[in-house]
Amino acid sequence: CDMETDGGGWTVFQRRQDGSVDFYRTWAEYADGFGDLNGEHWLGNEMLSLITASKPHELRIDLDKNEYAKYSNFRVSPALLKYRLLVSGECDLFSYQSGALFSTRDQDNDASNARHTAQYQKSGFWFPDEYSNVNPNGLYSNYLNCEFDVLGKHKGMHLISKKVHRNEDASV
User: Fold this and answer.
1) Where is the Fibrinogen C-terminal domain positioned along the sequence (predicted)?
2) Residue range 20-39, pLDDT digits in tens
3) How remote is the C-alpha of 145 from its chain's centroid?
4) Of the four, 39, 104, 143, 163, which is 20 to 30 A from 64 by CA?
């Protein structure tokens, strides 16, 4: 949990900071979660779906050097619906992922007929098609192997953290 940022009460579901955890995982591993909650980790799609199922939630994505993006509505559907992502409230590349199904190296759920994007990108994530520029779970070297558009900038990152909390102002 993050009890300090933006009023606290955030559940951190993803953290990348040093490349110590391999995010090129299977469907079952992403469903259950992996890593170290005090370091790099993915909380688990099952838990994320349960957390966001009944009440509206906000998403906050923290990047290097105090940059962040905040989305007023965030939900992950259950496994039966392939953990479909629903996100709104910001206009950037991550918003383009809304409606995408979760894909992993052993489950190709993206809309592309040309290639298996999760295998090509070497990670599990919500890939709407083969041209996705948002891949915070990609290979980690000196920077995360992804671009992320926040505040109009495309950049590689050292650190990314995704967290959710209940949005009392949003409707279900």
Assistant:
1) 1-140
2) 999 999 999 999 999 999 99
3) 14
4) 104
pLDDT(141) > 70: no
Q: Residue 138's pLDDT is what?
A: 82
Class of residue 46 by CB neighbours under 10 A (exposed 0-12, middle 13-18, buried 19+): middle
What's the token pair of residue 72?
């007023």
Beta strands in the chain (DSSP E): 11-16, 34-35, 41-42, 57-63, 68-76, 85-88, 102-103, 125-126, 148-150, 153-155, 160-166
Conformational region of residue 99, where left means phi above 0, alpha means psi within -120 to 50, and beta covers everything else: left
- What domains sit in the chain, N to C, each tagged with a CATH number? 5-166 (3.90.215.10)
Three-state DSSP state, 30: helix
